[in-house]
Amino acid sequence: MRGQFCDGPQTRIEITKKTNDHIPSWWNGTKTARDKYGHLQYGSWGYKVPWEKYRRRGDGCNGGTLVDSGTATLPTKETGWRYWETSS
Prior knowledge:
Layout: E1 11-15, E2 19-24, E3 38-55, E4 65-85
């Protein structure tokens, strides 16, 4: 017996993992001048989330065709400074 989920074509979005990320604010905060070693930037801590969009053909519950994919950047309420170093 086929359930309602299997009737007709449907689209679904899958999110398989998330990674921590720092999202710079529109105000870049303080950065050190050229040829320096340290960098400082204010922003929101959040996540990068890869996603995939699938569409079924309507011929059963199995399978699907990948229609689109990408990465979403999702901020959280946590804000703070990010510091990193470079050679120049």
